[in-house]
Amino acid sequence: METLRAAQARDEISPAELRQCLTQQVDQFRINKQAPRGCFGRTKYGGRDGLELAMHKLNSKRGTRPGTVNWLQAQMLRAPAPKVSEVFEQVRSASGFTAREMEARLFKPAGLLAGYVGGEDAGRVTCKQAYARLKGQRWASSCGQTSDLLKSLISDTWQASAAPGSKPGLEILQDLKDAIRNPANTHIRVQIGCHSFMIENSGPDCRLYQSYMAVGYGGYGLADSLQTDVSMPRQEFLEHLQDVFDPDKNDAASVHLFRGTCDPEANAELGDVRVCFETTSQPRSAVELRRAMQQKLAADAAEWQQVAGSDQLASEYALAHLN
Fold it and tell me: 233: helix, coil or strand?
């Protein structure tokens, strides 16, 4: 019991997460007699719902029977994974950033400003001007940078699929579809051809988070994806995904899912397709994900503050700070 109280004190478990999970799980486990003996099954608790019973135990002066704390903690781990879009918006709103500005600040400034090195604006765009563009205009990091960022934020524990070339790509595609159908896989990072993206595998739906540098003026960034790439039923998503590998349907399916082209044969052996993916069933909680985003923003906050007010050329700053 002290473990739970300490976790709440450290803000590792939010009241909303505790309430949601216990409400969903306790009644089911009591009915199925899967809770520890004496935990929630006594007659004197009859008529109380799962949350009321859990709160009774959490606040009991007598404490709990051995095993109850571990059982409650196990149920909290079964709480639905947080939606990245919702946590992103919470952190953005609290920070006062625009969506594009927060997306930029999740990366290191030198990496984003490197786009000015050797470009036509290299000798005239200052850091201050570049920051204003990042804050308010369309731009995009590479798809791989975005999916890698999301991977680091969502979880530290990922399971890789078979490597490209280790078996036919279409067999790995089938493995991917099986992974998507498995509700335990809350998030799946995927690469098809040259395009990389993150799937949020939530309830009966799937949602993509991605960026795409070649779409429109300035590209299609994570901020755009958060606004535009909405959830769709899992079966519908799987059908569109299969169509990406059909030459007759590839163009329409790629635009629908990825906002651009996607050639599964890119970077693959002759006559094969390139598919690989990673799954996690251990995502961070909403509190942990929010903290991970805040820590990421704080890590480079001083550098971004310098960039936002500097008249140094953006290309010069990038060259001076790139490793």
Answer: strand
Rg (CA), the chain: 23
Give the β-pairing of 195-202 and 275-280: unpaired
CA gap 114, 122 in Å, rounded:
10
Contact 226, 209 (CB under 8 A): yes
**Full-model pTM:** 0.76
162-173 in b/e form (b: 16+ CB < 10 A) is eebeeeebeebb
pLDDT confidence bin for 209, thresholds 50/70/90: very high
Of 120-134, 149-163, 239-253, which range is least confident?
120-134
pLDDT digits (tens, 9 = 90+) for 54-104: 555 555 555 444 454 444 444 444 567 899 999 999 999 999 999 999 999
**Whole-number average pLDDT of the chain:** 83
Cα separation, 267 vs 276, in Å, equals: 12
In single-letter form, the type of residue at position 64 comes to: T
Query: Which distant-in-sequence residues (6+ apart) come within 8 Å of 16 by Cβ?
Result: 286
- What H or E segment, with its residue span, contains residue 198? strand 195-202
> Which residue's structure tokens are 């795409």?
212
The 275-280 sheet, strands edge to edge? 159-160, 275-280, 187-192, 195-202, 205-209, 232-233
The amino acid sitting at 238 is: L
d(Cα 313, Cα 125) in Å, to the nearest integer?
A: 6
